[in-house]
């Protein structure tokens, strides 16, 4: 049985940056109800409305993993670790995006799967075998027939985007060699609850995983966890190391029970903690609006930094439009000169000069706080201030 615990109101597709200012409507399928549920049995947290995948992941997908130094560095280290610990003869990445990780691998030892054609073209041009397809059983069969079994399958911020988990795990099981491993990483639900980062919920994030739920899901597909790493990326993520239950090559590390016990201690196997979270989300909204109103009453300027998908949830849930935020800046070329979905705030290609007369920066990419503060020392030095809604709305 699933129970609703959070209602984030009407939301547009989070990554659907608009070319022109536009009032979106439910009638035209441009807005949908964003509600979040907890499954009492599997402990899985998921959003209610599933948007057809080709509406979200197509040849115009704007997000590029290589846009931040934090991610690029994290992927370099991961590549080294994978080679050291598993030395795969064949590596496959599901959701390879613009190749931020895969470009560290040798071209004859790595396969990309990326349904967003604009991104698939990038890795293809770099010389990597790239399948511009959605991951499913047929594709797994096709790859296995051509290349044989895969030793390491990796997917970062991808599995939570796919509604049919049975299809995902069964097809991975099928393509992996018996001693092969699967590594997935996704935002941590525990961190999301602790930080009241309700903006982890948007149409693409069909699930936000806890280790408890991942363990329960894997159980059904003859997979098991053998290691979990805590990462700083995306506001706190978990990297899950998964193997076939018959694979005795790797011992199950203490990190697995440690993470699960942490989550159990927090109460994540019971609905109450989610109800509490929902109250915190409401409080967060009022506090953020209070801060923004106070600033605007003093006629100060606020600019958004990082036109993230997460910001779409915040803007639309809190009803923040260009009466509060003048514009967003973002380094991603495909977001430039477009508008934040639902709230019509203009996005400009990042240029430090755009911050010259700005009093406050709203951190849309709060998950890159360190990197951004480092970059914007000049802004801070001349008295500029930051606003973040995570873990609680505050100015610093
Ligand atoms: P991210 O938080 O990874 O994504 P999501 O859209 O999944 O919520 O996105 C970070 C965004 O912030 C991305 O569009 C790039 C942008 N960005 C900047 O503009 N400048 C920066 O210095 C950094 C670190 C990110």
* Bound molecule types: thymidine-5'-diphosphate
Q: Hey, roughly how much beta strand do the residues contain?
A: 15-25%
Detail the poorly predicted runs.
Answer: none
CATH superfamily of the largest domain: Vaccinia Virus protein VP39
Q: What top-tier CATH class of the largest domain fits best? A: Alpha Beta
User: Which whole number gives the mean pLDDT?
Assistant: 95
From the alpha carbons, calculate the radius of gyration and give it in angstroms.
21 Å
Number of domains: 2
Query: Any idea what the CATH architecture of the largest domain is?
Result: 3-Layer(aba) Sandwich
Q: Which helices and strands appear, and what pairs or packs with what?
A:
Layout: E1 2-11, E2 32-39, E3 45-47, H1 53-56, H2 69-86, E4 91-94, E5 110-113, H3 117-125, E6 129-131, H4 137-147, E7 150-156, H5 165-175, E8 176-187, H6 189-194, E9 207-208, H7 211-219, E10 223-231, E11 237-244, H8 254-266, H9 271-297, E12 302-305, H10 309-318, E13 327-330, E14 347-349, E15 360-363, H11 369-375, H12 377-381, E16 385-388, E17 394-395
Parallel strand pairs: 4-5, 4-7, 5-6, 7-8, 12-13, 12-15, 13-14, 15-16
Antiparallel strand pairs: 1-2, 2-3, 3-9, 8-11, 10-11, 16-17
The structure holds thymidine-5'-diphosphate (TYD).
């Amino acid at each position: 049985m699933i129970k609703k615990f959070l209602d984030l109101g009407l939301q547009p597709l989070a990554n659907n940056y608009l070319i022109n200012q536009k009032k979106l409507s439910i009638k035209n399928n441009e807005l949908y109800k964003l509600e979040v549920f907890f499954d009492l049995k599997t402990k899985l947290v998921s959003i209610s409305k599933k948007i057809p995948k080709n509406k979200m992941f197509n040849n115009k997908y704007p997000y590029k993993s290589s846009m931040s130094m934090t991610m690029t560095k994290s992927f370099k280290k991961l590549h080294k670790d994978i080679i050291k610990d598993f030395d795969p003869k064949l590596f496959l990445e599901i959701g390879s995006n613009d190749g931020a990780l895969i470009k560290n691998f040798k071209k004859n030892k790595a396969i990309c799967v990326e349904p967003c054609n604009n991104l698939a073209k990038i890795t293809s041009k770099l010389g990597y075998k790239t399948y511009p397809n959605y991951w499913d059983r047929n594709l797994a069969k096709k790859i296995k027939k051509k290349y044989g079994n895969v030793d390491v399958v990796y997917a970062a911020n991808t599995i939570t985007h796919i509604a049919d988990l049975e299809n995902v795990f069964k097809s991975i099981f099928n393509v992996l060699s018996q001693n092969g491993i699967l590594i997935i990483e996704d935002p941590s639900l525990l961190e999301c609850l602790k930080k009241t980062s309700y903006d982890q919920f948007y149409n693409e994030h069909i699930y936000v995983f806890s280790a408890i739920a991942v363990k329960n899901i894997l159980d059904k597909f003859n997979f098991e966890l053998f290691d979990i790493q805590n990462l700083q990326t995306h506001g706190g993520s978990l990297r899950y190391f998964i193997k076939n239950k018959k694979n005795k090559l790797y011992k199950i590390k203490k990190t697995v029970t440690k993470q699960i016990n942490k989550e159990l201690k927090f109460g994540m196997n019971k609905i109450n903690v989610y109800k509490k979270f929902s109250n915190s989300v409401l409080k967060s909204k009022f506090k953020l609006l209070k801060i923004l109103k106070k600033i605007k009453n003093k006629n100060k300027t606020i600019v958004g930094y990082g036109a993230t998908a997460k910001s779409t949830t915040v803007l639309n849930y809190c009803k923040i439009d260009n009466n509060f935020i003048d514009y967003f800046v973002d380094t991603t070329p495909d977001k430039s000169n477009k508008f934040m979905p639902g709230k019509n705030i203009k996005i400009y290609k990042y240029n430090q000069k755009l911050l010259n007369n700005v009093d406050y920066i709203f951190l849309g990419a709060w998950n890159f706080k360190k990197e951004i503060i480092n970059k914007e020392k000049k802004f801070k030095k001349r008295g500029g201030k930051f606003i973040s809604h995570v873990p609680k709305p505050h100015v610093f």
